[in-house]
Amino acid sequence: MTSTPSIAPAVPLDQAEIAALRERFPILAREMNGHPLVYLDSGATSQRPIEVIDAEHDYATHQNAAVHRGAHLLAAEATELFEDTRATVAAFIGADERELVWTSGATAALNLIAGAIGNASAGLGGAAAERFRLGPGDEIVVTELEHHANLIPWQQLAARTGATLRHLPVDDHGVLRLDAVDDIIGERTRIIAFAHVSNVTGAIAPVSELVALAERVGALTVLDACQSVPHLPVDVASLGVDFLVFSGHKMLGPNGIGALWGRRRLLDALPPFLTGGSMITTVTIDGAEFLPAPQRFEAGTQPVSQAIALASAVRFLQAVGMDRVHATEAAYGQRLAAGLAVIPGVTLIGPPPGTPRAGLASFDLAGVHAHDVGQFFDDRGIAVRVGHHCAQPLHRRLGLTASTRASSYLYTTEAEIDAFLEATTLVGPFFGVSR
Q1: Looking at the domain 15-48+321-430, which fold is it?
Q2: What is the percentage of the chain residues whose pLDDT exceeds 90?
Q3: Per-residue pLDDT, 6
Q4: Where in the sequence numbering do the catalytic residues fall?
Q5: Under a CB-based contact definition with an 8 Å cutoff, are residues 66 and 75 in contact?
Q6: 362 neighbors 402 (Cβ within 8 angstroms)
Q7: Ranges for the Aminotransferase class V domain (predicted)?
């Protein structure tokens, strides 16, 4: 009998490699308030390398035209670039290009899914859409961790269809309570929507367990992968979910571009959400017939230059290696969590140090509002996120109105992490808060 060869863990990027990568990001050379910029807000929006900036400029300069619409050479070139881009980004998550729908971002993608299911529930889509139809007695399950973009569309869908919205709770540290799943997920569950990585706690969801529960009751799974696709290797076949969404601006790409991935049989069965040009086969004054996915969900003018720039971002990430990106950020996540946990007055939100997490950490500092904490950092050139991070229910559960979040990426250095931690030790004394 032969043993299965072990796979060596990925090696994090060393500081020399990171220094070389940083040369590709012009904005990182800026000074803020007389200090070198320490950018620790990549969980909100990542910075862009020169390759991505140039890709969008080059398209606008040399190939700009309406895709899928013109018979002239310029339009043909633009269309070919646009569809090559789809193939590149789809391959990045292990998907077939026919399963990748362009959207303006993850928020639009989640609204697309919920809206299309709402249309099916209203009787559109014929027999093929029957499995998506919701009504009174049906249940949609989310978690208490969700970003508003993966909560409000489901609230709206429940209100339109009469379905019930339920949620998986978190504990006092903001960690998902798996002991509650049997009380929440059952035979009436039709949809389970959850984040792959929490944008507040950095916790990585137990995807395989939740998918197994969904399969047991015949529910669809929708994965918000905004904080995972940019930061760790993602393969849709391995994950086993039915739908997945992500945004370009969080993965070195531009604003205004994101994607919905869905199983092809499901996408082809869903009725369209937005309608108009480019997504039809035949239109009469009384009705229309629609193209198969992905075009049936891409009505109107498409974000061509943004998609091309996103493909450039994907190639940049592939050249670095997503396994190494993940290894680097996992180490930073532990460095952040361990450093924050020992600072007097600081409460770390989410899993404790030593528990796997993404490269981000949020905290509360007793006696100092998060906005004041953020201003203290900003005065020193350190950019962090403050507020409820579009996750008010989670903050309310933890008894907080706001928190402070530091989030890293492949261009973050150990020195920046340490500068942030050192500055955190100074916040309380600066505001006269005794420990």
Answers
A1: Aspartate Aminotransferase, domain 1 (3.90.1150)
A2: 96
A3: 46
A4: 390
A5: yes
A6: no
A7: 38-420
**Is it the case that residue 17 has pLDDT exceeding 90?**
yes
Supply the pLDDT for residue 422.
98
* Per-residue pLDDT, 3: 40
420 near 40, Cβ under 8 Å? yes
Spans of all domains in the chain: 15-48+321-430, 56-318
Residue 293 amino acid letter: A
Which residues, other chains included, contact 435 with Cβ-Cβ below 8 Å and sequence gap of 6+?
Answer: 344, 345, 428
Q: What does each C-alpha distance from 398 to 73, 148, 249, 360, 392 come to in angstroms?
A: 58, 16, 29, 18, 10
Residue pLDDT, tens place only, 138-170: 999 999 999 999 999 999 999 999 999 999 999
Instruction: Look up the CATH architecture of domain 56-318.
Output: 3-Layer(aba) Sandwich (3.40)
Question: Strand, helix or coil at 281?
Answer: strand
Collapse the DSSP code of 350 into the 3-class scheme (helix H, G, I; strand E, B; otherwise coil) and give the result: coil
Nearest C-alpha neighbor of 112 from the set 250, 217, 261:
261
> Contact at 8 Å (CB) between 19 and 366?
no
